[in-house]
Amino acid sequence: MSKKYKKQTKKQSEEIVKILIDEYKDAKCGLDFTTPFSLVVALILAAQCTDKRVNEITPIFFKKFKTIEDVKNADINDVIKIVRPCGFYKNKAHSIVESAKIICDDFNGIVPDTMEDLTKLCGIGRKSANIILQECFSKVEGIAVDTHVTRLSRKIGLSNGKTQFEIEKELQNLFDKKYWNRINHVFVLHGRAKCIANRPKCDECPIAHICKKND
Ligand code: SF4
């Protein structure tokens, strides 16, 4: 029989997020960007790739393609050559060029600022759209749920959701909206520093007294 999932209360969840925000005061988006479109490109490249690698590639990319129109009109092979080190380079190159086309053709060359429109871009789902809205437009519509947030939410006992959308909705119910834009950043850092997959450092963890330690 599988182990019973142990869940946090709303009060305990608030304590957890407060402790983590205090622990990781400098937590912020790990991707470098200067414009909404440069964040769109960085997020597409970041799928299953490190922020460090993406941050090495985006300056090279934008040195070659200076505007969204340059990207829209790019030869796909030139894009592939640059983004190759980020992995899944054919899909990522395609998503970047298609997104540039959609932005130019459907949004007058301006990256849209709503969840509905952002998720019309190629390679941009709710997680990335949440990050773009928060980082570029100071709009908090949801919680960016990535692999770190998914893993830690289960482990700590915040959500046992089966999809990222289910997890996002459960977290939204648990946490006051004022915390929503901090959750992704602090969970990513906590997942790297202490709650490391398969070898968590529970004896050094600031939420060890409250964590459900689900497997
Ligand atoms: S107590 Fe252990 S399992 Fe729980 S969050 Fe901390 S490191 Fe992760």
In short, what is this structure?
Helix content is 56%, strand content 0%. The protein has 215 residues and is mainly alpha-helical.
Notes on the structure:
The protein contains eleven helices and no strands. By secondary structure, the chain is mainly alpha-helical. It has two domains: about 10-30 and about 145-205, Helix-hairpin-Helix base-excision DNA repair enzymes (C-terminal) (Endonuclease Iii, domain 2, Orthogonal Bundle); about 35-110, Hypothetical protein, domain 2 (Endonuclease III, domain 1). The longest helix is centred in the middle third of the chain and has 18 residues, at about 90-105. It is elongated. The protein starts with 9 loop residues before the first helix and ends in a 22-residue tail after the last helix. Iron/sulfur cluster (SF4) binds near residues 156, 200 and 207. The site of iron/sulfur cluster (SF4) has 12 residues, from α9.
